[in-house]
Design a protein that fits this description.
Length: 287
C-alpha cells in the first residue's frame, strides 16, 4: 500500500518466473523475417520502401480504426488506407514536394468528417491516418537523403535492439515496474537495459561503417528513449479503449501497431533531425 492509499503493483519476479512458451520460437523467427524484408526494401529504394510501408500502413489502419470503435473493414479504414497509399505513391512520384503530405492531411480530414457524420469519435479516427502516415512518409522521404538507406537501417537497428533488450533484461532481472497502470509488463530494469543495449549495438554499427562510435552510442541511447515513448503511447491508447493487443496478425508480436509503435514516433523525429536540423546519424562514416 502506498502513502496515497493505492495498492502498489508487485515487482516483476525476474528469471525465476521465466517459463518456456511458443513465443520463444515464433517471436525471433518472425522478427528476423520482418527485419530481412525491411532491410531488403530499404536498400531496394524508395519505391520498395513505399510498397512495404503501404502494406504495413493498411494493416495498422485496420487495427487502429477497429480499436477506436469501428467495425472491421469499415468506411473509415478504407478511407485511411486509400489516402495512405496515395500519399506514399505521391512521395515516390513527386519527391522533394509536399504532395504526399497534402494528400495525407486531406485523408485525415476526410476520415474525421466521415466519422463525425456517423458519430464515431471523429478526432480519434481522423488522427489515425496522421499517426500512421507521418512516420511512413518520413521513411520514404528519409530514403532520399544522402546515405539514407544506412541512416534508416541504423535507426531500425537501435529500435530492434531496444525491443529485444527490454524483453530479455526485463524478464531476467525483473524488479520494479515502469508504469504499472499503463504497461504492467515493463520494468525499470528492462528499460535501462534496453537503452544500454541499443547504445552498444548502435555504437558497433557506426564504428563498422567508419564513424564515431561514442556519438553513435549516444544516438542509440536517444533512439531507445524515443522508441520507449512511442511504445508507451500506444499502450495508453489501448488502455483508453480497453484493449490488450492491437491485433494478432504477427505471431509472437501481436498486431501491426504493436510491432511498429516505436517506429511511428521515432521515424518522424529522425527524419526531422536529418532533413531539417542537418544531423548526420552516421557520425562521419561514408559507406
Amino acid at each position: 500500500m502506498t502513502r496515497s492509499g493505492h495498492i502498489s503493483a508487485p515487482s516483476a519476479p525476474g528469471y525465476r518466473a521465466v517459463r518456456f512458451n511458443l513465443d520463444w520460437i515464433t517471436r525471433p523467427l518472425f522478427g528476423i523475417a520482418l527485419a530481412a524484408l525491411a532491410t531488403a526494401a530499404i536498400f531496394g529504394g524508395a519505391p520498395y520502401i513505399a510498397a512495404a510501408a503501404a502494406l504495413a500502413g493498411i494493416a495498422a489502419a485496420r487495427e487502429w480504426h477497429r480499436m477506436v470503435g469501428e467495425p472491421v473493414f469499415g468506411p473509415a479504414f478504407f478511407l485511411s488506407s486509400i489516402f495512405l497509399v496515395a500519399a506514399l505513391a505521391a512521395a515516390v512520384i513527386w519527391p522533394h514536394t509536399l504532395a504526399g503530405w497534402a494528400i495525407l492531411a486531406g485523408g485525415a480530414f476526410a476520415t474525421a468528417i466521415y466519422a463525425a457524420a456517423v458519430k464515431l469519435r471523429p478526432l480519434w479516427h481522423g488522427f489515425g491516418p496522421l499517426y500512421i502516415g507521418v512516420a511512413l512518409l518520413a521513411l520514404v522521404t528519409l530514403r532520399g537523403a544522402p546515405q539514407g538507406a544506412f541512416v534508416i537501417v541504423g535507426m531500425f537497428i537501435a529500435i530492434w535492439s531496444t525491443d529485444t533488450g527490454a524483453l530479455i533484461v526485463g524478464n531476467l532481472v525483473g524488479g520494479p515496474r515502469l508504469w504499472p497502470s499503463l504497461s504492467p509488463n515493463k520494468t525499470w530494469s528492462g528499460t535501462l537495459g534496453a537503452i544500454a543495449i541499443a547504445a552498444m549495438v548502435e555504437a558497433i554499427y557506426v564504428a563498422i561503417l567508419g564513424g564515431n562510435a561514442i556519438e553513435g552510442g549516444l544516438y542509440g541511447a536517444a533512439i531507445a528513449v524515443i522508441a520507449h515513448c512511442g511504445d508507451l503511447f500506444e499502450s495508453w491508447v489501448k488502455r483508453v479503449f480497453q484493449r490488450k493487443d492491437s491485433g494478432g496478425i504477427i505471431p509472437g508480436h501481436g498486431g501491426m501497431l504493436d510491432r511498429i509503435d516505436s517506429t511511428l514516433l521515432t521515424a518522424p523525429l529522425v527524419a526531422a533531425a536529418v532533413l531539417l536540423a542537418g544531423l548526420n546519424p552516421l557520425f562521419g562514416a561514408h559507406p
